Amino acid sequence: MATNTGSSTAKGRLSGVGGLVKAVIVVGVALAVLISMTRLVRTVASPADEVAVHKGGGIIEAPNSKGCVAANSRELRRPGDKYFWYPASQRTYNFTGGEGADHSAFSVVSKDFQTLEVPGSVEFTLNVNCTVLTRFHDAIGNRYHAFYTTSDEWSETNDGWQRMLDLYFAPALDATLDRVAKKYTWKELYADPTIKDEMNRTVNEQLATLIQQKMPGEDEFFQGFSALIQQPTPSEALVQALADEEAGRAQAAAAKAKAVADAETTEARAVADAKAAEAAADAQVAQKEAEARIARLEAEIKAAQMKPFGSAKEYNNWLAIQNGLNPYQPTYGGSVVAPSPSTP
Asked: Are 149 and 85 in contact (CB under 8 A)?
């Protein structure tokens, strides 16, 4: 009996060890499966400013559309599927020609057949409605590779995206700006800021239509256009010619002003000289008149002095006597008779 009991105990111990081993194996297999599933089942997320177009994939699955991963959302990544990210935030098409610009300034021709450069930029958004964005990807984005295959990369411009914008935006902007420019002379385009405002309005109103004319289908893939057109710039030769013209006008105006001032000075001098001559003549006349009056007065005084003597001869004789002279020839027996006083 004792032997049988020991044998049963040993078998029980072996059975317990075997069960533990089995449990460990089961747990290990479960962990391995879980790890494998974790590797196979991952998530895909779109940041707040991006949207991903979801396409089927795998070995036997066709690349059918499976919706979109909306901005600021996450979903399970299906094995073999592909995702194509596009910008959901506002984008800018810069045509200033400077560093980092998307395009050079557009050349336009004025009413008087002069060429000017029009720099500026246009802000817009891509239509990220899932149905429309999927069609955009199928018709345009996929053709030019205008997407990223991972998120958080739209801080830099994709080459395919740039190529696509140049193809659709550049011709439309060029045609719109040139149409406005042909209404004005180059001087008006260069100097009148209201024309720049007109260009902004025209781009905002017509750009969507012109771009849409080149798009397949009727979907509006781009929206919310906002143009910021800068002042058109003529060539350096035209600017220099304008500066020379303005300088010539300024010189002519200065010469005219000087001539007018000189003429006014000459006229004023002539008037002053004439008035001085007139005043001198008047003074001479007055002097002559005064001399004449003095002469008449002296004559009257002289006449009054001679009157008591009866004649000028007798008066002169009297004067001679008063001065110690003898105006008479010697006479004998005669006497000098003094004039009798007379009442004036």
From this structure: yes
Tens digit of pLDDT for each residue in 290-317? 888 878 877 877 787 777 887 878 888 8
Residue ranges in the chain assigned as alpha helix (H): 2-40, 130-136, 142-144, 159-181, 186-191, 193-214, 236-306, 312-322
Could you read off the pLDDT of 150-197 as tens digits, one per residue? 988 888 888 999 999 999 999 999 999 999 999 999 999 999 999 999
100 φ, ψ to 5°? 80, 0
Structure tokens at 63: 């690349």
- What is the mean pLDDT of the segment spanning 79-85? 90
Rounded distance, CA 178 to CA 341, Å? 122
User: Candidates 3.30.70.1230, 3.10.450.50, 3.30.479.30, 3.40.140.10; correct CATH number of 89-234?
Assistant: 3.30.479.30
Name residue 42's beta-bridge partners: 77
Closest-CA residue to 179 (of 108, 101, 90): 108
Work out the angle between the directed axes of helices 312-322 and 236-306 (0-180°, nearest 10).
Answer: 90
Nearest 5°: the CA angle 86, 89, 92 is: 95
Distance (Å, whole) CA 106 – CA 124 = 19
Alpha-carbon span 246 to 252, nearest angstrom:
10
> 222: which strand partners?
126
Nearest 10 degrees: CA dihedral of 280, 286, 288, 293?
-170
pTM over 0.90: no
